[in-house]
Design brief:
By secondary structure, this protein is mainly alpha-helical. The protein contains 20 helices and no strands. The chain folds into 2 domains: about 1-225, no CATH class; about 225-500, no CATH class.
Length: about 500
Amino acid sequence: MKKSRTQRAFLNVATSIASEFISLACGLILPRLILSNYGSAYNGITQSISQFISYISLMKAGIGGATAVALYKPLAEKDNRKISEVLAATEDFMRKIALIFAVFVLVFSCVYPLLVSEEFGWLFTASLVLIISISTFGQYYFGFTYQMLLSADQKDYITTCLNILTTIVNTILSVILIRGNHSIHVIKLGSSLAHLITPLSLYFYVRKKYDLIKDVKPNKDLIPQRWDATAHEVASFINNNTDVVLLTFFTNMSEISVYSVYHYVISNLKKIVTQVTVGFGAAFGDMYARNEIELMHQNLGIFELIIYSFTSILYSVCFVMIIPFVVIYTSGVTDIEYIRPYFALVTVLASIFNCFRIPYRVIVINVGHYKQTKNGAIFEAVLNIVVSVLGCIRFGLIGVAMGTLCAMVFRTLQYAVYLSKNIMYRDLKYFIRHVVLTFAIMAAVWLISKLYMPVVVANWFSWICYAVLTTIIAIILTIGTDYLFYKDDLMNLIGKLKRNFLKRK
C-alpha cells in the first residue's frame, strides 16, 4: 500500500533519529580507542585529513538542492522523462566531479604531508590521505545522484537504513582491527571500504525500482538554480569546516583532537535535530509545487514545535553533561588538557542557533528561493572567516568557536525575517517567542541540575544515570511549556500521529 506524504515524513524522521543515535554510540567508540591506543596526534591527523578532503565537496555545491527542487514537480506529475533528464544531468556532473576529486586527492596527498612534517613522515601521511579518500570517491561516482532522487521522493528512510548498516559494519570491523594492533592505515582502509556499502546499494536499488529512461539526453536547463544554490552550499561548508582548517594552521594536531571530542558530541546532537527535518523538506516542496499554501501555514507551526522541542531537550542535557562526559571520555589521556568549559559553552550556543534556523531554512530552500537569499549566505561565510581568524590568533580554540557563533546568530535571524516577509507572511513574534522559551527551559534544567545533582560524576554508570535524570527533567519542562504556549500545534501533531499510524489497518 502506498504511504501518504505524512507517513513517509514520519518514517523518514524515525529512521533518521535511530540512525543518529546509532552513529553517536558507534562514533564514541572509535575515537576513544584511537586516543587510548595511538594518542591525540593520530586522532587529530585523521580528523584534519577528513576535513581537508571534504573541501572538494565545494565542487558539487548547489547541485543537490537544485536537483531536489527540479524533481518535485515531475515526481508529483509522474513525468518519467523529465525525472530521467534531471538525473542524467546530475549524474553526468557528479561523474566529472569524481574524476576531479581523484586529481585533487593526488595533489593533496603530496602537499598536505608538508604541513605536518614535524609530527609525521611524508609517506605515512600521503598514503593515509589516499586511503581516507576512497569512500568519498565512491559516494560521488555512484550514490549521490540517486540519493537526491530518493530524498525528493520522500524515501530518505532507504538511504538511512543503508547508512545504519554501514555504520555498524564499520564499527565492528574497526574495533576488530584496533584490537588486533593493526596500523592506522589498515584501520582506515577497512573503514573506507565499509562506507562503500551505501553508494553502491543506492546505485543498484534505484536502477531496479524506478522506471527511468535509459540513454536519455541530460537536460541541464531543468536545474537552472544550481549557481544560486552554490552560494548556500559554500556558506554552509565554510561554517562547518573553517574551525579545523584554522586550527591546523595556527595550532597543532593535539589541539584539533580536543576540538574533535567536543565537536563530535555537539555535531551529532545537531544531526539528531536536523534528521527530524528529513522528509519534511520534500513535503513542503511538494506542497509548494501543488500551490497548497494554506497547508504550508498549518504545518509550519507543527514543524517549529518539533524542532524547538528537540533542541530544548537535547541541548539542555548537553549543557549539563558535556564536561562530565569529556572528563570520563578522556580519562588517562594526559598529553593535552581536554577540559575546556568556556569553549564548550560557546560552541554549544553556536550549535543551538544552527538548530533554531532549521524550520525557516528548510522551507526557503525547498521552495527554491536560492537567489533571493544568497547574499545572506555569502555574508555569513565572510563573517565566520573574519571573526574566526581574528579570534583564533588571539584566543586559539575558543576564538574559532566565537566566529561560528556570530555567523550562526546572523544567519538564523536572516532566515526567520526572510520567511516572515517573503514566503509565509507571518509575525516575527512567533520566532522570538520560540527562542526565548527554549533558552528559558535550558536555564531551568541547568539550575535544577546545579541545585540537586552532584558536582562530580565519577564513572560511566553514574554519568548515564544523571544524563537520564536530566533528560526526564528536560522532557517534562519542554512538554509542559508546549502545552501552555503551543497547545493547538501540539494537538495537531498528536492528531496527525493518530490519523496516520494508530488507526492504520
